Amino acid sequence: MLDCLQPLTKADVGPRDHRVKKKEATKISPLLSYWQPVPGLLMTDFWPDRWDMMQSMAGLAKRAASVTGGAVIAAALLLPVHAYAQSQNGLSNLFGGIFSGTNPAPSQGAPSPGGAQPWSGEDGASGHPLMTAAAIREAAGNFDNCVAGMWPDAARRGITQDNFQRFTAGLSPDLRIMDLMDSQPEFTKSIWDYLDILVNDNRLAKGREVLAKYKAQFDATEKVTGVDRYIIASIWGIESNYSTQMGDRSVLQSTATLACIGRRQAYFKDEFLSALEILNRGDLRPEQMRGSWAGAFGPTQFMPTAFKRFAVDGDGDGRRDVVDNPTDLIASTANNLKKDGWQSGQTWGFEVVVPQGFNYMLADRAKAQTIAQWEKLGLKRPTNQPFPNPAEKAYLLAPAGAQGPGFLMLQNYRVIMKYNPAEAYALAIGHFADRLRGGQPFVQPWPRQERELSRTERLELQQLLAQRGFYKGTPDGQFGGQTREALRNFQASIGVPADGFASSDALDRLRGR
């Protein structure tokens, strides 16, 4: 299965390009009459639109890494970014370390705070020069100076010196995070296993309870933002299993560690300083800011910078509490999706039957066309229901190749992917939302007879594609768009469906068997 389908943690998702956008006024309902940005914290002028996908397979879990369900989830899926940066609880742990890795730590590793599993003391799997054991030890030895050196930047953000000293006092590096950041698990979950784990009867029952309990808050938020309540409830359920698996690491400690040690220092310096801004203003208390190893926190796993852009005060109490205040949580999550381009009244996509002999080279995010055009190519819904709006543009996703169901993905699916840039994660969110709404499971079967390739086999597949002249990248065992395109071209050259599905059969064909 391709890693591009797998959820990443927000930890392995880098900053996106920033484009200046003009702020727009929003009409506020009575319940959310105080829903407004806080000067200096809600920076809606910065609009990231490109994910920097990192090398670490363990790294995503919302997307970073939350071990919460979504983060967790992400990791679980096909896992490789939401950030798998999450804590050791929740889905990440449920999937046996798919996101964050569970390699035994040698005794020579440095102890971690609080009796947690220690750092292995080994070089990181990414091969990055800042992830060598020697570089990690050297940076750890300079940790106090590194943190103190961020005071001028903190002051420029309006953080008082008293608060800076108070919130950074006693901070020490959590070196176990270095193992989690560079973890490259040998095995990952198939998309059908991922969906089975996340979209289940227990989670659905809890989701319906949450929708009923907070109906007033969902009503008000839906009226203001136009964002579907079932999508918000789905994210809440998948990211943290409805606030029961939010991660247990200190956001300040995690982001400070990553700001001073390892290969993502510039990115996490912004996250650390943003966390300090949140505390300085009083939106949250330090004990509330606990989450994944990458710094994602709360029931829907906000990174500190995302909190600054999207968090709102939904009940007018002067604080934006996305951890313990359901009104703020629901309103802020909806605001995130709205600002990312959510289209009110529209769904995320449709399951479709792809006809035999279809040209799977068209199954590409860059090759969107109208639903009417897809219908002319033979695509139809498995229930033979008509499409609501044939003029809508969509792209075809075939996560299990010609052997599994196809999906026509609309604009709102792309919005969900901005929340966590993994196709499997977004598919799980959309499907779980439909089930909460009363929809049925997917109609078409998955190729459950197929097994996931191990990392060793994925590396071999890339090497064989390279030997045949199809793959131009550096084989690393991590699949993305380049690997998918290379595999499609190989499949086309031998006259089999060019669906880019990395199956054991595809590997055997490359081996010449």
UniProtKB/TrEMBL annotation:
The lineage of its organism: Bacteria, Pseudomonadati, Pseudomonadota, Alphaproteobacteria, Hyphomicrobiales. This is Lytic murein transglycosylase. Coiled coil: none annotated. Residues 455-510 form the Peptidoglycan binding-like domain. Residues 104-124 are annotated as: Disordered. GO terms for biological process: peptidoglycan catabolic process. It holds the Pfam family SLT_2. One of its GO terms (molecular function) is peptidoglycan lytic transglycosylase activity. Residues 143-434 form the Transglycosylase SLT domain. It comes from Bradyrhizobium huanghuaihaiense. Residues 104-118 have a biased composition (Low complexity). It comes from the Bacteria.
